[in-house]
Structures are given as structure tokens and as C-alpha cells.
Fold this protein.
Amino acid sequence: MIARMECLPCLVRQAKEAVCMSSGDPDLRLRILRRCLAWMAEADLDVSPPEIAAGIGRIVMELSGRDDPYREVKSLHTDMALKLLPRMDRMLAKSADPFLTGMRLAIAGNIIDLGARSQVEDADIGDTLREAMELPILGEDPEDLRRETGRAGSILYLADNAGETVFDRKFIQQMPRGRVTVAVRGGPAINDATLDDARAAGLHEVAELVSNGSPAPATVLADCSPSFQRLFAEADVVISKGQGNFESLSGVDRKVHFLFRVKCPLVADHTGYPEGSLLLLHSRG
Amino acid sequence: MIARMECLPCLVRQAKEAVCMSSGDPDLRLRILRRCLAWMAEADLDVSPPEIAAGIGRIVMELSGRDDPYREVKSLHTDMALKLLPRMDRMLAKSADPFLTGMRLAIAGNIIDLGARSQVEDADIGDTLREAMELPILGEDPEDLRRETGRAGSILYLADNAGETVFDRKFIQQMPRGRVTVAVRGGPAINDATLDDARAAGLHEVAELVSNGSPAPATVLADCSPSFQRLFAEADVVISKGQGNFESLSGVDRKVHFLFRVKCPLVADHTGYPEGSLLLLHSRG
């Protein structure tokens, strides 16, 4: 999915947040944000929105000298989500359909997204859990995904934000053990999970962990490592979490199951589902 | 009040909205927005936020060739507000304190602001009327303003948005007849009222109308006409509507009564009142 002019104000807002995370010096903040504006004024927009966000991320890191400005935020979100593990386990234990409950937990985790929201409060997460259990999941029939993961020899799971990864863990536990590989960002990208963040969330206990080799806040295949590209091409099933991964992979030439909440009007327009919708969609492939 | 880095994403959003109002051509829209970004990357930010908005407005008008992109929107808002006149008149007729009710109507009108919000629905206006009658007005004691306007030989009333002007008319009717001059923008500035818009709202029936000579979406004194500057300096009482006028005049060297709703975190920070507050504040002067 290609960026549109309407993405620019949202990307400037994200740039401002990243700048504020990176430095407390007002002069430096302004200098970095000005550089982002100048870059966006000239940037190639015939790419997906997260590719533009990746360019902004590079500028912020270069000029601030901070290599992972969201480190503390990611750690906070992971800790918040870890505290909810006993509650998630109780939900799964009581569930008549743990696969579906796991999937709903994974989508609940997707609401924790600093890229599209400005703050996440602890109480929000509790509300989100309840909401994600009740709202309809639109798009593809979850039975298809259940069937495919049940018989897959290899499942590639593309993670999204730190914190969300704790919820993913509960979904992955409902899949055949030993067959799931979780791919995370190859470098700091907003509040997306890197290898360190994924380990903090305990994902290594339920799946093999790999880096996709790219620091974009999405899965920009051309920027990913050859080994990740091979994994992506060869996995029997690919599950992609979050709107960023959808934006970068929606036109890809293989079947991918996208699980995410629609968080902006452009993605609503692109998918045909209103903002706020919980979606399980698969690319044509 | 001086702009801060945090103003930039909001100004980019306003630029995007103005660009979309100005042209339906996607290529031209993008070209104009890119020019705005490049300009903001270099612009002097040691000015009030509406002065930066004025620069953006100039770029949008120059490149789009549309001299008043918000004309239809302003007309629509004015018409919506005019339909509420009978209701406002009933509220005033029933009121035990028409001055205060008029002031509350004027502040209700201030919620109609495309500069800070993206859309105004008809139902919103009805809700706003009720809300503005009930919420506390914080800051200065309205009795001081009542006393000052009661004995003033000349009252200068600085208007804000088109549509809001219809509400202002009801407040102005509670002041001594023949003593009020309403000043509007000297040229198109977002959805702010110009002379044409003010006449459409019927303001000429209750006050003398003048242009301030400047097309900024605020009252940037240095950019206003000498005759307006004289009026501003010499009026016994100055009443300023809206956040834009507050941003440009808050540090001014005379007493001004500011009546507005706090619509952004920076103004909340600057005034010490939370976002959404209804304020009557006076500058030290």
C-alpha cells in the first residue's frame, strides 16, 4: 500500500514524538524536526508509509545520537503486558476455544501502538482485553487460519510492537509446538519489538526468534536480510501482526494472514473496513 | 505567545486541510503540501503560531490560485448558525441575566473552529449550545467585563471564525448600542470571518464593521492597518474572541478581555487551564 498526501501530517506527528523521546534539549529537538520536515518535503512518497517512517527514524537517530529512543517505553509496555499474563492464562483456561481466544488476545495486544496513539494507560489495556473478546473480527474466516496452522510444517509470525509481543505469545502457544518462528525488527523502529524486546516478553520460550534484518517499523522485504527473505518465501503459513506490517506487505506475492486493528482512515479506505475494525485478512498471494 | 516545536504537526495538519480545500488535483495537492513542509523547515518560529499559519495560507493560496478556499465552508457554518438564531433568542428572552447568557452564546460559537477540529456537524452545534450554558467560565470575573462594557464609550470586538460571528451578534446585542466596532480579518484566513462573512452573519446590524487589514488567522498587530492599530490602542474596552487572537495578542501592552475555549495542550500550558476550558481572561495591559 502506497503512502498518500494524508499520511504526511501523521508522519510529522510521529516524528515529533520520536524527537521528544530522543532528546530533552529544545534546540536540538527543533533542529531534528526541521530536518525531518525538509526531508519529507523532498522524499519519494511512492512507497508504503512505514518506509517513510523509517527515513524519519534514521534522521532522528543520526542527529540525536540515541540509537533506541523508545527503549524505556518498550520496556514499560512489556512489563505492563507481562502483568496481565495470569489474567490471559485464566481466560484461556476457561475458554471453549483457546485458538480463537488466543487470536483475540493477539489482536488485543495490537491496540498497544505508540505509532498510532500517543499514550497507553494501564487501565486501557484491561478495557482492551474485554473489548477484544467481544468485538467481531472481520474479514477472513478464522477457521481457515486454524486449519492452515494445524497442518503447517513451518509458521512465520511477524511481530509488531513491544508489549503486543506478550499477547502474541499466548496465541503462538495455541499453534503446533516447535513449528513457529517469530520475526522481529532488525533494529530500533519506534516502539516495535527487536530481539531484546521479544526476549523480554518471553517469546523465545514459545518460538524460535529471528531478526528480519531491517530497522523499518514494518516488513519492507527489499530491506530485509536474505535469510529472512528466504524464510518469508518458504514458510507454509505467514501471520502478520499490526497495521505497519499490513501497509508494507499488503501487495506481496504470497499468501499472508494479516491480523490487526484498523488505525487510520487511509487503511480503512484501502481495506474497505471502518477505522477501529478488528481484521483478519489474507493477501491474495 | 510564541510557537513551540509541538505546533508543527498541528500546523502541517492545518496545511493539509487547506490544501485539500484548495484543489482536487492530487499532484497539485502534494506539490503544495511539500512546499509548506519545506517552508516550515526553515521558517522563523519565534512568532505566534497563527503567524506561521499565515505563511502557510499564503503558500496555499499562491500555488493553488484559490483566494478563499474555505469560502463554502464558511458560508455553510454561517447558515448553520443562522438557523439557531430563534433558539438563541428564546434562550435570551427566558434568561434572568442576558449579558451572561450572551457571553455564553459567544463562547459556544467559539467551538466552531476548523483550525483546531476537522469537521463540525449540525448536531454538534446543538450540543455545544447546551454545554456552553452549563460549563463554568474560568478566569476573570464576568462582572468586571459587564461593568467595563457598561460604561465604555467605545468597545472593539475582535471576531474569529465565520459562523461564530452569528453567536457574537447575540452577545454584542447585550452591550450599549452604537458603541461596538467589530474587527474581522483583512483577507481570507482559514475559516475566519472576513467582511463578507461578517455581513452574511448580520453583524453589521448590531455593530460597525471594520477590517483589521491583515490576512493572518489572528490579530498580528504589526501586520494590521494603521487605522486598525489606532482603533485597538484607543478603544475603551477590547474583547477578543478565539484562541487564535489570544495566541497573537496575549503579550500585548494593553488590557484585552479574551473569551475562548482552550483547544490545544500548549495554550493549556500557557494559561494554566486544562484543554476544553471555557475562559474569560484579561491581559495585564
